[in-house]
Design brief:
CATH class of the largest domain: Mainly Alpha
Shape: elongated
Structural class: mainly alpha
Number of strands: 2
CATH superfamily of the largest domain: GntR ligand-binding domain-like
Strand order of the largest sheet: 1-2
CATH topology of the largest domain: Four Helix Bundle (Hemerythrin (Met), subunit A)
Number of domains: 2
Distance between the termini: 32 Å
Helix content: over 70%
Oligomer: single chain
Length: about 220
């Protein structure tokens, strides 16, 4: 049972509901049980409702007057829109990263790769998804383009949910790590066109892998 222990109730409820959505405890299309969650957390329903407003703004839940709040269903079109936009943003970002490259930025990228490897070795899917997205965030943070970073961050929450889903459909988790090693090698090559193509291909391949996995398991697929 999750309990609230300090005054930052709203932030804690948002984090806990995100965790339940990302982990699959709250599944796409499922109604979010306000009273049950409030009881589990030992709080009133007010903070739960406030947290749901935040999650609605992030695109994780949808609320209607008579149906309450439900976890959003991800459609194939949603997946394609998010991944193709990410491919465009990150392909451009890596060229800026290489233009502005510094020892600190390269070390941060290498450290993100090490952390991803450790997560893969531990085999915890949520942590792998987190470190996977964290690797890509390093590139955006070091691109020195504020509006590009803001555009990417507008997709971050949904990207994390999709990253969690994608991780489950990798043929082997070592493949995920190997693909990121290839991205680092492309950056290290100094060839911006090569790096841009590598990032775009990686993201689009991940998209196709997710869609193929969901279609194969259509009976359980979290989309309509």
């Amino acid at each position: 049972m999750f309990k609230i222990h300090d005054t930052s109730i709203g932030r804690q409820v948002v984090r806990e509901l995100r965790r339940q959505i990302f982990s699959g405890r709250l599944k796409p299309g499922e109604k979010v049980p306000e009273s049950k969650i409030a009881e589990e957390m030992g709080i009133s329903r007010g903070p739960v409702r406030e947290a749901l407003l935040v999650l609605e703004q992030e695109g994780l839940v949808a609320t209607s007057p008579r149906r309450g709040s439900r976890v959003v269903k991800i459609t194939i079109n949603d997946i394609r829109e998010i991944y193709t936009l990410r491919a465009t943003l990150e392909g451009f970002a890596v060229t800026l990263f290489m233009d502005a490259v510094s020892d600190a930025g390269l070390q941060e990228m290498e450290q993100a790769l090490v952390e991803l490897k450790q997560a893969v070795e531990n085999g915890e899917l949520m942590e792998i998804a987190k470190k996977n997205l964290g690797f890509h965030e390093v590139i955006l943070n070091n691109s020195k383009h504020g509006r590009l970073l803001s555009a990417w961050k507008s997709l971050q929450v949904q990207s994390r949910m999709l990253s969690s889903m994608t991780t489950e459909y990798y043929l082997g988790l070592t493949d995920l790590y190997r693909h990121h090693v290839e991205l680092v090698d492309a950056v290290r090559s100094g060839d911006k066109s090569k790096a841009q193509a590598a990032f775009e291909k990686h993201i689009l391949d991940s998209m196709e892998q997710l869609i193929a996995g969901l279609e194969k398991n259509a009976g359980e697929a979290p989309f309509e």
